[in-house]
Every structure is written in structure tokens, then in C-alpha cells.
Write a structure and sequence with these properties.
240 residues
Amino acid sequence: MFTGIVEELGEIAAIEELGEAPSGSGDAPADFARLRIRGPQVTVDAKHGDSIAVNGVCLTVVEAADGEFTADVMAETLRRSSLGALAPGSPVNLERPMALGGRLGGHLVQGHVDGTGVITERVPGERWEIVTVSLPPELARYVVDKGSITVDGISLTVVEAGADHFTVSLIPTTLALTTLGSKQVGDPVNLEVDVLAKYVERLLAHGTVPGAGLPVPGPQDPAAADPARGAADTREGVVR
């Protein structure tokens, strides 16, 4: 689990494509690739099997030495995230998992990318910059004004949520210390929506609150229309 607070702006040192792309796939990526990433700060205590988020994608460390680490990336990840567009020299946001008992400076981030967006506009301000990012239709319902979203591994607050886009306001620190300072209009970014929104949607879709044995009030729920009718509460046999 991560927090979306970038620890270090690293760099892709090398990319080795391993395996063959499916026949007739055109520009499809190879079966998988091995990335070598430069990040002296996040590798200071890294070892084989550890997790490090790279532009918001949770990757497993294969080897770590001399301020660099390698990680294997499957074709599915290359296709569904912006990692497939990286090249040697590309800057990347790096974050180690949050230590148990550590400060949750951003929000709960899994490192599981839900989709990609594209930067469509940048509007500089006196001390900040407003950035607009396109939003895949299937993710729009999870994004709300003043809610949280992860962009390239960065925990950000949504300024405005639209049907097919959202805007964020970037402070000078974010612009200076993350990839969003150099991303241009047309560049892809990884998106991870707030996982709490997905859990709430799942619970409401099933119509019950697990463990409580009570229905979620809805249009067809008699208790919602007439509270006096109530429902038997499982606690101590009390009737609401």
C-alpha cells in the first residue's frame, strides 16, 4: 500500500524486451520487459521481492545495487499503463510502500492502475498550474469534486470532475519534484481512482451491509419510506 507522496524523481536507465510479441500484433509490446531504474533514495534499503511504485504502478524488485533496481513488467501492464511508452532517460515517480504506523500523507493507493488518461490542457497561474486530464468513461463515476485521485503515482485533489475529464491544481513543489512538471499536452498518465469508492459501489450493488444483516435503505425498502415500521435489529433483540 502506498500514499501517493512521491519520494524521488528517478530515471529509466535501460529497458530490455524479453520474449516475443504475439504474431501479427504490429506495435504490441513483447511478452514482458525488464526495466532498470535509477533511484538512489528508494533503493537505499531495497532488496529482492520488495515493492516500489513506478509512476503509480506497483512493481517487484528483482535486483537492487548501486542506486538502481530492476523490475519485470508483463505485457498486460505495458499495455494497460503508460509504462509501455517509457524510454531510457524518461523520468519516473518513485515511492516505497508506507511503513505500518507511518503517516498517511496522501490517500490509500494500491499501485493498481485503473486506466490511463491524457493531459489535454495546462494553464499556468502565478504560483500554481491547472492541469486537465482526460478521463476514461468507465472511471468517471469514481471521480468527484474535491475527491482524491492518483496521477502517475501522485496523490492529488480533484478540482473539477467532468464526464470525460478532471482538473487538478499543481503547487510548485509538485511541479518541481514529480514528472507532472515536465509532462506536456498529449502525454499519457496512469490513473488510479480512490479504492474506497469502488468498495462502496460494490456493497450498494449487492443491497446489503455485510455483518449487519440489514438491507441498505432504498426506494423499495419499507423502512426507508416509513421508519415507524422499522426492522428488527440483531443487537440485543432491540426493535428500531
